[in-house]
Amino acid sequence: MQKLVQNFIRTTNAFDVDGALSLFAADAVIDDVSVGDSFVATEGVRRYIERFFVGYNTCSKLLSMESPDNFNAVVRLDFTGDFGHEIGTLTIAANSAGLIERIDADLE
Questions:
Q1: Mean pLDDT throughout 37-57?
Q2: pTM of the model
Q3: Which of the four CATH numbers 3.40.50.300, 1.20.1250.20, 3.40.605.10, 3.10.450.50 does domain 2-107 have?
């Protein structure tokens, strides 16, 4: 999970949408309660990354990560961008192929 999380941060910080998408399963879901919406499958995940990472010039910094097993992690991130500064939590679930199948996101 550590490598998957690091790759997610690296690709989104570089605004590499295709690189970030390569980390997700085709049927992945991002549920972000802070924006009140879910983003489903490749096109939904693309919209999320383009809107909230590229669109806001978001830079993420890892604050902490708890990973009880090889398929789940709770990640705390420091986000900065055109919106200012926020701290958020991503609860990430990966499938057996090592791809992200779900992210539950929220801001503190």
A1: 98
A2: 0.96
A3: 3.10.450.50
